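Still learning folds. Look over my entry:

…
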Amino acid sequence: MPEDRKALVSNIRGFNRFYTGLIGLLDETLTHSAYTLTEARVLFELGRRPGHFAANPGGPAGFLARALQIDFAPAVSDIARELRLDPAYIMRILRKFSAAGLIDARAGPDASRRRLLALTLRGQAALAALQAAADRDVARLTADLGDEEAAELSDILARARQLLGGAPASERSEIA
C-alpha cells in the first residue's frame, strides 16, 4: 500500500476512534436509553420507512412470532441487507420490539397474507425520544462552533459522505 494511502487509512481510523469516544458509541446503550446503537438504528429504519413486510405464520416461525401470529422473516431479510447485519440478530431485535409493544404488523395494501411492520404509538414515542436525545448531544457537541465553523464542518461532512459513496443521489449535486 502506498504511503499516502497508509496515512489516509491511519487518519480515518484515528478519527473513528476519536469520534466514537467523543459521542459515546462504545457505551452499552445509545444516549443513555434502553436501546443499543443497533436497536436504535433498526427502530429508526422502521420509523423512516414503514412498510417492511411480515407474513402471517404458516412456516417455521419462532414461538413469539407464532404466538403473535407474525413471521418477521420477510422484514428481517430487508433490514439485515440494508444494515449489513446478521438476520438472526435483526430477528431478535424485532421480537424484542414486538414484545415491548414498539411494533406491530398491520394489514398490507393487498389481500395477500403479507402484513406491514410499523411502529406503534409507543414505538414512535421511543424513536422520537432517541432522536431528540441524539439531536441534543450533537447540539451540545457543536455549541462552541461559530457560524462559519459550523457551516465548514457541515460542508466537510457532506463532502466526506460524497467521497465515500454514502451521500444520497439527491444530495450529490448539492455537494460540490
Remarks:
- Strands lie at 52-55, 103-107, 114-119.
